[in-house]
Write a structure and sequence with these properties.
Layout: E1 18-19, H1 41-52, H2 72-76, H3 84-90, E2 107-111, E3 130-135, E4 141-147, H4 157-168, E5 172-176, H5 182-187, H6 197-215, E6 221-229, H7 231-244, E7 252-258, H8 264-275, H9 286-300, E8 307-308, H10 314-322, H11 326-352, H12 371-378, H13 382-395, H14 401-407, H15 414-418, E9 423-428, H16 438-446, E10 450-453, H17 465-475
Parallel strand pairs: 4-5, 4-6, 6-7, 7-9, 9-10
Antiparallel strand pairs: 1-8, 2-3, 3-5
Length: 477
Amino acid sequence: MPLAHRLAGPFGVDLPRVVPLPMTRPSVALDPPDGRHGPSRRQLLGMAGLLALGGCTTSAGHAPASLAPADAAAASAPFPFTNPWVATVVGTPAELRAVLPDGLAPQRASLERFPGRAIPEGFWYYDGGLTYSTLLQERPAPLVFVIAGTGADDRSRLMILLARTLHAGGAHVVLIPSPSHANFIVTAGSTFLPGNGEQDAADLLKAMDAIRQRLAGRIQVSRYDLTGYSLGAWHAAFVARADAARAAPIGFDRVLLLNPPLNLYHSIQQIDAMLYKGLPQGIDGLNHFLARATARLAEAYGPADPLDFSNQDALLDLYRRLQPSDESLATTVGLSFRLSTTNLIFTSDVMSRSGYVFPRGQEFRSTTPLGDYFAVTLRLSFTDYFDDLYVERYASAGLTRQDLIDRSDLRWIGNWLAGQKQIGLITNADDVILAPGDLHGLREIFGDRAWIHPHGGHMGNLAFWPFVDQISGYFAT
């Protein structure tokens, strides 16, 4: 789900696993000078972190051959949340999650996509190049490339879950960050402005080709497959089409799209609107929203009862204690996306030297104060990025705003997708990133290759064992 995305990039931090709550009502302005502009980075990242880290771990022990829970009642139970906002935020309860083998963890590596590219010193942590992760078999096997969702890198929780699922099914797995992640923008993006399906696909394919070359001789590959979730699923569709048109294609044998948007522009409008569902005063009300949420957390968990996210059902427990409204849940989801947007806009602006937020001609350094830039970018939406940076970039190529909206739709390549029997889709009927009519559009393209779950919100049921079993079965040899 979106809240599990790793908060990395110029405004990102790693967050603690156990968060003891304060004994007294916390102050609104935790970072005074950021507080004068609105909520501080510490407030925002802390709040999103509380919700992002829940249920990240799995229990120890040996998994049975079946992915189903050992308990018969759990194995036959439906997905429990019919409210899409609850499903998106809380995810799958521990007793209904797929049982996967323990012990193996993806190994991280990096590659230099553009030797000699000048990377601003402020992005010193990306000097090693594009990061990716692998989980490999010791025998010949299919290799599955996995593309991350909005703002996520190769180590996000959902990427690790997909890696374990596919590896348990007998595949080599390669995890690649989203082209919207700061690491990809800085080290592998050719335009620094992600969102163009064809251009992003070309950048992803170049990264995949480089990784294939690096793995040659180390592993034996019987075929190549492809998947991705959320924005990564949208990217996977464009990658499959672009690859098929190449003189020397990778040749993906099976492609599976998990919870993709149909029209990316429609979905970013849905996402932008989420943030304001619980903010009647607009973005100026975010400070109050976070202060109120933190106070409610403090009331629900006393100083002797810390909020321990090593508990697999921490978010479920949190939801049951607080009983937040749908509007508050929607704002929480929207906030997680907005934090991804801040990193996307700032990184794209710096690398493209557009002068949108960061002054053109000024050097971005590790000592550059980020508070004011964060305050500004927090007020900018995905739609702002599209209109003010993305449209301007492609106007020079003779493309209008409407041209770009049309090309952000899977129906732009719909005839091709409809004829590709090796490409399937799994999504949820109540996915909160789909605009009205979008689910019908997906069904029209994929026909009987679209498997629609009734409930799950956006990625909330990815760990639900029937969903995992469906993914595993699709790629089974």
